[in-house]
Amino acid sequence: MEHNIIIAGFGGQGILFLGKVIAGAALIQDKNVSWLPSYGPEMRGGTANCSVCISDQEIGDPLVTKPDILIVMNRPSFDKFIGSASKNSVVLVDSSLIDKKAERQDIQDFYVPASQLANENGLSKLGNIILLGTLAKATKMFEKEIFYEAIEQAVPSSRQQLVKTNKQAFEIGYDFIA
């Protein structure tokens, strides 16, 4: 198994948290993992992205330049990274915040109104986890239970009440595609 993932959006959308959950799921499965965050000085409201590498082999370079999985949650990130997605990559787009579609025929793209679905279901700010659910179903990277365990581990002990809502958001994303 090998995945090179870029997750990108605005600070405050849970971009780095989503990367930690994916990396955590890989660790649970005894994979080699790297997680490399990058964010502007503005933090909340500024740009944020992270690279996650998952492999059965040692990882030589944690910086992802040609992702085989791309998750974008805002238009600037879509514009910046869509051209770098490798051929046959899986691309997840928060279509409630991005009004553009990829003009590429060589990728498998999913347009999920994640932020809108989160708000409609009383799960404000969990669009990132809705996209995680869609990723889980689209790629079958790991079983749902592995992602649930990774969510439980990633949520701080002082905020464990959020585990239930994160799992609800995951299910919405998982059920979004057939």
Question: Please, could you describe this protein's structure?
Answer:
- The protein has 178 residues and is of the alpha/beta class.
- It has one domain: Pyruvate-ferredoxin oxidoreductase, PFOR, domain III (Pyruvate-ferredoxin Oxidoreductase, domain 3), CATH 3.40.920.10.
- The chain is 38% helix and 22% strand.
- The protein contains six helices and six strands.
- The protein has a six-stranded mixed beta sheet, with helices on both faces.
- Helix 1 crosses helix 5 and helix 3 crosses helix 4.
- The longest helix is centred in the C-terminal third of the chain and has 15 residues.
- The protein is globular.
- It starts with a strand and ends with a helix.
- The model has no long low-confidence stretch (mean pLDDT 95).
Q: What is the assigned CATH homologous superfamily?
A: Pyruvate-ferredoxin oxidoreductase, PFOR, domain III
Please state the structural category: alpha/beta
CATH class: Alpha Beta
What sequence of helices (H) and strands (E) makes up the elements? EHEEEHEEHHHH
Q: How far is it from the N-terminal to the C-terminal residue, by CA?
A: 24 Å
Task: List low-pLDDT spans.
Answer: none
Sheet with the most strands: spatial strand order: 2-3-1-4-5-6
Helix content: 25-40%
